[in-house]
């Protein structure tokens, strides 16, 4: 009875609702996710009339057994990492809801929407100023980074 | 007022009936979502509501409160919450709810405040306010006795202005005020 674990139950519910009513610009490969519910790959489309219109990205979600009490590990993967002041070239994202401000009422859907909206509000495509240093020194797991959230404008 | 002709009322009613069935379906669907726990997304078991109005299973909310004991906030709206500030929901016949997750401490109990007893001035009960009033106005020794040997209530009512008892109370309060001031002065300067 693998369905018993509460994190699996909840992930399954989220998957069903995302298949049923995917938010605009978000798509996923349900069969691949069913194979391993704790590792999701999600396709994102840059929103219309923003700097990222026409671009598509891949997000990777890693969940722990303690989801949704623990936040998922969310990074951009694949060849195309968006150029954004809060996205490092290794795919790590500086977004407070992914660590300090995580709440179990958030979901894959709300995280995707937050990331799309973070991209949409960008005024100028550029990497974070400390990109080179961070990428060289950081842990593979973005949740191990002690993020310093200071810029709410983008 | 003229009553509407049959044809008009028919015209009005027909589309509305169709809409009603649609609405009921939507509402049923909505109702299901309304009773879902905001954490596990299942129908809430051992349901509790935060003071900000958000519904959770007690085991789910408890686990969240334990996850961040020093920063307990509502998962939905980030209002401050705590174990003491959630209200359990008891549906009809829910007293014998059996929950297998017994590692979780019991759901906090509902708080009941007794309604305040209304003032009744019947004047017959011993220790009721009407009783005091009628004797307090009397001559000094009598009034003094009633208030001293008054077992019904811990504090007698304030005496009416102008009576000897009132004067005495004024005097006593002045004496105690001076005593308190002397005591404070002693504390400060000793």
From TrEMBL, chain A:
Keywords: Transferase, Ubl conjugation pathway. The keyword Nucleus does not apply. PROSITE patterns: UBC_2 (PS50127). It catalyses: S-ubiquitinyl-[E1 ubiquitin-activating enzyme]-L-cysteine + [E2 ubiquitin-conjugating enzyme]-L-cysteine = [E1 ubiquitin-activating enzyme]-L-cysteine + S-ubiquitinyl-[E2 ubiquitin-conjugating enzyme]-L-cysteine; S-ubiquitinyl-[E1 ubiquitin-activating enzyme]-L-cysteine + [acceptor protein]-N-terminal-amino acid = [E1 ubiquitin-activating enzyme]-L-cysteine + N-terminal-ubiquitinyl-[acceptor protein]. One of its GO terms (molecular function) is ubiquitin conjugating enzyme activity. GO terms for biological process: protein ubiquitination. It holds the Pfam family UQ_con. CDD domains: UBCc_UBE2W. Its EC number is 2.3.2.23, 2.3.2.25. It comes from the Eukaryota. It is an enzyme of class 2 (transferase). Residues 6-154 form the UBC core domain. This is N-terminal E2 ubiquitin-conjugating enzyme. The gene is LOC115882223.
TrEMBL record, chain B:
Pathway: Protein modification; protein ubiquitination. This is RING-type E3 ubiquitin transferase. One of its GO terms (cellular component) is nucleus. Its main location: membrane. PROSITE patterns: ZF_RING_1, ZF_RING_2. The chain crosses the membrane at residues 131-151, 171-189. PANTHER family: E3 UBIQUITIN-PROTEIN LIGASE RNF5-RELATED. The keyword Membrane applies. SUPFAM superfamilies: RING/U-box. Residues 1-10 have a biased composition (Polar residues). Residues 37-78 form the RING-type domain. Pfam families: zf-C3HC4.
């Amino acid at each position: 009875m693998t369905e018993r674990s509460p994190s699996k139950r909840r992930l399954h519910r989220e998957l069903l609702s995302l298949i049923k009513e995917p938010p605009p610009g978000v798509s996923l490969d349900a069969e691949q996710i069913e194979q391993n519910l704790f590792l999701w790959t999600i396709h994102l489309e840059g929103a219309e009339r923003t700097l990222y219109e026409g671009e598509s990205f891949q997000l990777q979600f890693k969940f722990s057994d303690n989801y949704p009490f623990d936040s998922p590990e969310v990074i951009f993967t694949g060849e195309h990492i968006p150029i954004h002041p809060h996205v490092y070239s290794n795919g790590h994202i500086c977004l407070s809801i992914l660590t300090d401000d995580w709440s179990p009422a958030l979901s894959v859907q709300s995280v995707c929407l937050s990331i799309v909206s973070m991209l949409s509000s960008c005024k100028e495509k550029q990497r974070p100023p400390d990109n080179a240093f961070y990428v060289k020194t950081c842990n593979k797991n973005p949740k191990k980074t002690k993020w310093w959230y200071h810029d709410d404008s983008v | 007022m003229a009553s509407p002709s049959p044809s008009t009322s028919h015209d009005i009613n027909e589309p509305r009936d169709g809409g009603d069935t649609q609405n009921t379906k939507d509402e049923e669907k909505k109702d299901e979502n309304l009773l879902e726990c905001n954490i596990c997304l299942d129908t809430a078991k051992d349901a509790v509501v935060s003071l900000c109005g958000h519904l959770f299973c007690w085991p789910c909310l408890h686990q969240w409160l334990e996850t961040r004991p020093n920063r307990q906030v509502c998962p939905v709206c980030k209002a401050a919450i705590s174990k003491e500030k959630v209200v359990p929901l008891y549906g009809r016949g829910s007293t014998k709810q059996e929950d297998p997750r017994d590692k979780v401490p019991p759901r906090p109990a509902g708080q009941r405040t007794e309604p305040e007893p209304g003032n009744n001035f019947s004047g017959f009960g011993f220790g009721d306010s009407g009783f005091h009033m009628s004797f307090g106005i009397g001559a000094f020794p009598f009034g003094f006795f009633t208030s001293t040997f008054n077992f019904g209530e811990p504090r007698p009512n304030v005496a009416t202005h102008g009576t000897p008892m009132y004067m005495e109370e004024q005097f006593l309060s002045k004496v105690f005020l001076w005593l308190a001031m002397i005591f404070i002065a002693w504390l400060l300067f000793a």
